[in-house]
C-alpha cells in the first residue's frame, strides 16, 4: 500500500535535485547584458550594466566565437568601452570581466558578437528613415500562440500599429502580414501613400511619405482617335506585388526623392516561417525568386533596399541562414551590422505576442531586416527597436508579435 507513494517521493526528489547534482557547485556570477551600441569600420563600442562592487572591467575580444583567435583585452573604468583596431567586415566576439577594488575577478558576461562595419557612410547625401514592421493583422487573430501570450484582437491592436507607424517618423514603411489592414491605410492617408493602392492589401505592402517621395511612373503610348495626333498616353507607376513562390508575396515600388531627384526601389517581403530543413530550402528559393524579379523590373538600374521579415538569423548557423547567404552573394549586407549607432540591439525583433522583451545575448536574433548593397552609395546611420515600452516591458496592448525596426539610411 505504501510502495507507490514512496516511489513517487523518491522520483520527485531525484528530479528536483538531479539538476543540482549535475550542475557546477558554484555558478560563476554574470555581468549583465553586453550590447554593441556603436560600430565603425575599425571599432565597436560596448555598454553593460554596472556590476555591484566592480571597480574596473576588462573587455576581451576575439576574432571567433570560440575565443581562440585574435585575442585582445581592453581595460575600462566604467561600464562602457570602445574596442579599436578591428578589420572592416570581420565579426568579433566580446566578453566583459568585472574586478573588485582588490583586483580580484568577480564576474564575467555572456559573449556578444558583432562585425566591424563593411559599408561606409557617404560623406555627402540625405538621410532617409525606414521602418520594417510585421503587423500580424488578421494572422494573429487566429494564432493560438499569440492568444496564450495575451495578444488582443486586430480591432484593438490596429490603433496601436497606427500610432507606432505615425510616431516613427519614417519616410518609407514596409509592412508584412498586412492582409486586411486597409483601415490603417485610411488612418495614415494624410501622411502616407500606400502601395498597392488597389484596395486589396496583401501580405506585404509599402507606405511612403508623400511630402518626401513620389512614385516613378512609366508613360506608355497607345492609339487614341480622340487625342491629338491619334496617340494617347497612359501613366503607370513603377510598382508591383509579385509572387515569389510557396504562396509568398512581395511588394516593390520605385520612388523619387523630391529633395534630390534620385530614385530608389524599396521592397517589402515576408519569407516562409519555421526552422525545418524544408523551410530553409523554401526561403532560399523565395529569396532567389525575389531578387531575380526585382532585378528584371529594375530597368532604370536604380539602387534597391530590401526590407521585411526574412525569418532567418545568425543563431541558426551560416548553412541554414539561406536568405543571408543569397543576399550576401549579391553584395547585400544587413543594416543591423552596418549601423553606426544601435538602440536595444539585443532585444529580439520577435516577441511571441508578449510584453516581456526576448533577450538574445550573442547576435540579437532579428528576423526583421533591412538590406543594403555595398557600392550603392547607401550607408546606415542608426538601427533601433522602436516598440513602445513602459518600464522594463513593452507597452500594452502590443501591436504585433514583432517589433517595429527603424533604420535611418544616408543616401548619396
CATH fold-level assignment of the largest domain: Deoxyribonuclease I, Chain A
Strand order of the largest sheet: 11-12-10-9-26-23-21
What is the terminal separation in angstroms? Answer: 83 Å
Superfamily (CATH H level) name of the largest domain: Endonuclease/exonuclease/phosphatase
**What is the name of the CATH class of the largest domain?**
Alpha Beta
Query: Mean pLDDT, rounded to whole units?
Result: 89
Categorize the overall geometry. Answer: globular
InterPro entries: Endo/exonu/phosph_ase_sf (IPR036691), FN3_dom (IPR003961), FN3_sf (IPR036116), Ig-like_fold (IPR013783)
Pfam families: fn3 (PF00041)
Domain Fibronectin type-III: 30-116
Protein name: Fibronectin type III domain-containing protein
Characterise the protein shown here.
- The chain is of the alpha+beta class.
- The protein folds into 2 domains: 35-115, Immunoglobulin-like (Sandwich); 126-411, Endonuclease/exonuclease/phosphatase (Deoxyribonuclease I, Chain A, 4-Layer Sandwich).
- The protein is 19% helix and 35% strand.
- It is built from 7 helices and 26 strands.
- The strands form 6 sheets. A 7-stranded mixed β-sheet has the order 11-12-10-9-26-23-21.
- Helix 5 packs parallel to helix 6.
- The longest helix is centred in the last third of the chain and has 21 residues, at 277-297.
- The radius of gyration is 25 Å and the shape is globular.
- The N and C termini lie far apart (83 Å).
Amino acid at each position: 500500500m505504501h510502495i507507490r507513494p514512496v516511489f513517487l517521493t523518491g522520483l520527485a526528489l531525484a528530479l528536483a535535485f538531479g539538476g543540482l547534482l549535475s550542475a557546477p557547485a558554484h555558478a560563476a556570477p554574470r555581468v549583465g547584458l553586453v550590447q554593441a551600441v556603436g560600430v565603425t569600420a575599425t571599432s565597436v563600442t560596448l555598454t553593460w550594466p554596472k556590476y555591484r562592487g566592480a571597480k574596473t572591467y576588462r573587455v576581451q575580444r576575439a576574432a571567433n566565437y570560440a575565443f581562440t583567435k585574435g585575442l585582445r583585452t581592453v581595460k575600462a573604468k566604467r561600464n562602457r568601452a570602445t574596442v579599436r583596431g578591428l578589420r572592416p567586415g570581420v565579426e568579433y566576439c566580446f566578453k566583459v570581466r568585472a574586478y573588485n577594488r582588490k583586483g580580484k575577478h568577480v564576474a564575467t558576461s555572456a559573449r556578444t558578437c558583432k562585425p566591424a562595419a563593411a559599408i561606409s557612410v557617404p560623406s555627402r547625401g540625405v538621410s532617409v528613415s525606414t521602418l520594417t514592421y510585421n503587423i500580424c493583422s488578421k494572422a494573429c487573430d487566429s494564432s493560438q500562440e499569440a492568444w496564450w501570450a495575451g495578444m488582443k484582437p486586430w480591432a484593438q491592436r490596429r490603433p496601436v500599429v497606427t500610432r507606432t507607424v505615425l510616431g516613427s517618423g519614417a519616410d518609407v514603411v514596409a509592412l508584412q502580414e498586412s492582409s486586411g489592414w486597409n483601415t490603417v491605410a485610411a488612418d495614415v492617408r494624410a501622411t502616407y501613400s500606400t502601395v498597392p493602392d488597389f484596395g486589396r492589401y496583401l501580405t506585404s505592402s509599402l507606405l511612403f511619405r508623400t511630402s518626401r517621395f513620389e512614385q516613378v511612373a512609366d508613360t506608355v503610348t497607345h492609339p487614341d482617335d480622340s487625342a491629338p495626333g491619334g496617340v494617347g498616353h497612359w501613366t503607370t507607376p513603377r510598382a508591383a506585388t509579385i509572387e515569389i513562390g510557396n504562396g509568398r508575396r512581395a511588394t516593390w515600388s520605385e520612388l523619387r526623392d523630391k529633395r534630390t531627384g534620385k530614385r530608389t526601389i524599396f521592397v517589402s517581403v515576408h519569407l516562409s516561417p519555421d526552422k525545418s530543413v524544408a523551410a530553409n530550402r523554401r526561403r532560399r528559393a523565395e529569396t532567389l525568386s525575389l531578387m531575380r524579379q526585382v532585378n528584371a523590373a529594375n530597368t532604370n538600374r536604380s539602387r534597391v533596399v530590401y526590407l521585411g521579415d526574412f525569418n532567418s538569423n545568425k543563431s541558426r548557423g551560416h548553412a541554414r541562414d539561406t536568405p543571408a547567404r543569397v543576399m550576401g552573394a549579391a553584395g547585400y549586407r544587413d543594416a543591423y551590422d552596418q549601423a553606426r549607432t544601435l538602440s536595444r540591439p539585443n532585444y529580439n525583433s520577435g516577441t511571441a505576442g508578449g510584453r516581456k522583451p526576448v533577450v538574445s545575448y550573442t547576435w540579437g536574433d532579428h528576423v526583421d531586416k533591412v538590406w543594403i548593397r555595398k557600392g550603392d552609395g547607401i550607408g546606415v546611420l542608426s538601427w533601433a527597436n522602436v516598440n513602445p515600452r513602459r518600464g522594463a516591458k513593452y507597452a500594452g496592448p502590443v501591436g504585433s508579435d514583432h517589433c517595429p525596426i527603424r533604420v535611418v539610411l544616408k543616401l548619396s
